[in-house]
Amino acid sequence: MSRRQFSLPGRTSSDPPDDTGCTILHVDMDAFYASATLLSHPELVGTPVIIGGGNRGVVLSATYEARRYGVASAMPMTRARRLCPQATVLAPDHRLYAAISAAVMETFRSVTPEIEPLSLDEAFLDVSGAIRRLGSPATIGAQIRDTIHDEQGITCSVGVSSTKFVAKIASGLAKPDGMVVVPRDEVIPFVQQLPVAALWGVGDKTEEQLTRLGLRTVADIAHTPLPTLIRGLGEATGTHLHELAWGRDPRPVHREHREKSIGADETFEYDIDDPREIHRHLLKLSDRVGARLRAARLTGRTVSIKVRFSDFTTITRARTLREPTDTSREIYETATGLFDALGLQRARIRLVGVRLEKLVAVEEAPIQGMLGEPDHGWREADRAIDRASARFGAGSVRPASLIARGSTSPSDDRDLS
DNA sequence: TCTGGGGTCCTGCTGCTT
DNA sequence: TCTGAAGCAGCAGGACCC
User: Fold this and answer.
1) A261-402 has which CATH code?
2) Where are the active-site residues found (predicted)?
């Protein structure tokens, strides 16, 4: 098999770049969800396929054949279908993605323990400790790509550089199925030739603001006085972009990742204007969030809700509790309290969400009983539900109000993802 | 065109405490 | 007792990322 390498603009494959000091690798699976799904649909390989679903869903991923028609991730499904009507649409299989992701992360761990996963399908690796054992960073990148292709049957792209953000841009340029090395002494010209939108942290709005300031390339940002950037973009963003524009990104690869919030939200198939129906969804979401908190042995102090109306305007409300909690019932009661306080009169609601913030480990947060809670209260009930779910499957036990009339399937109301 | 779900971070405002 | 400043926490909204 031949894998594309060293495709930095202006270079040829006979001119391998100097990867000395380029110890950061960014590895990104190519069209991960689509490639993974096609493992069980080999007859669709080479054809346009879109992963996504639902009336109001968006595209999770698409094969490169579908992307040629303009289909892109996060695009509304209705639009994707219009752009590429001949595409096969498949529902996502999150269990499969998690399994492949775990195997890929294991491959990374065989190279170095210094891994920072960003999502299921990408991670930063600091390979400085592996060079003596496995070879240069570019050699290690090539080995990783071959291993993932041979063992998982999917391709990935690798960016190699001395900083995280340059490695990330490089892997994007390498796609699909390629590798780009940005030598240390070429970082500044490499970064400064890029459009501003290539910078990490520049989305539509920031790009608009930068354009208004007359800045189109990273070089423009680099040569703009810092106070001007701060005035236009704010202290944090201004400083951050100025640093990146000079190739400076001192952030190391972080092995440990501590979650700061855990939440769940749900877009309804049709807008809902019945507060009792909203309460039922808040109960389901609180239940889901509570279960995830307890599984992660975390508690949270601030309960926040999100409400999105039919016109897509979105509001959030939050309440900080006296003590942290991991009890689904307490989360639910706080969430409904926040929702009821909005005083909505038959407003058409598209989405509701529940989130727990200010997380602390169970061990660090002595949990107190809810006010008026009996000795064997909601906490014990939650634990019993968690045990039943572990044994019989998620959703095997749930609040009676979530059991639809005539329903016998636990999956009716509870999302297993 | 018509916008998911899971997150993180930043900014501005308000109210409380010192 | 009153007032203003400073610091901080909480809250709300928004931008961004995958």
Assistant:
1) 3.30.1490.100
2) 122
pLDDT (tens digit per residue) in A166-196 = 999 999 999 999 999 999 999 999 999 999 9
In chain A, CATH 3.30.1490.100 covers 261-402
A241-to-A120, A139, A159, A266, A401 alpha-carbon distances in Å: 27, 31, 20, 34, 50
Q: Is the dihedral of CA A229, A230, A231, A233 positive or negative?
A: positive
pLDDT of residue A56: 85
Q: Which residues of A13-52 are buried (b: 16+ CB within 10 A; e: fewer)?
A: eeeebebeebbbbbbbbbbbbbbbbbeeeeebeeebbbbb
User: Which 3 state secondary structure label does DSSP give A74?
Assistant: coil
Q: Does domain A190-245 have CATH number 1.10.150.20?
A: yes
Q: What is the pLDDT of residue A304?
A: 92
**CATH 1.10.150.20 in chain A, residue ranges:** 190-245
Q: In the structure, how far is the CA atom of residue A351 from the C1' atom of nucleotide B15, in angstroms?
A: 31
E strands, A153-297, where?
A: 156-161, 179-181, 261-272
Residue A262 Cβ < 7 Å to strand B: yes
* Nearest-5° Cα angle at A117, A303 to A394: 50
Residues whose CB falls within 7 A of nucleic chain C? A 74, 118-119, 121-122, 168, 200-207, 302, 304, 313-320, 358
In the annotation, is A122 catalytic? yes
Low-confidence spans in chain A with pLDDT less than 70: 1-15, 366-378, 385-417
Q: Please report, for residues A59, A123, A311, A342, A359, the alpha-carbon distance to residue A54 in angstroms, rounded to integers and kept in the order given.
A: 10, 29, 19, 29, 32
Measured CA to C1', the nucleotide nearest A73 is: C18
Whether A226 CB is under 7 Å from strand B: no
CA of A302 to C1' of C1 (A): 37
CA–C1' span, A313 to C15, in Å?
Answer: 15
R_g over Cα of chain A: 24
Tell me how many degrees the CA angle A34-A40-A42 measures, rounded to the nearest 5: 85
CA of A385 to C1' of B12 (A): 42
pLDDT of the residue at A411 = 37
Amino acid identity at A365:
A
The predicted structure's pLDDT at residue A14:
56
- Neighbour count for residue A208 (Cβ, 10 Å): 10
Give me the residue label for tokens 């608009």: A208
Q: What is the pLDDT of residue A346?
A: 86
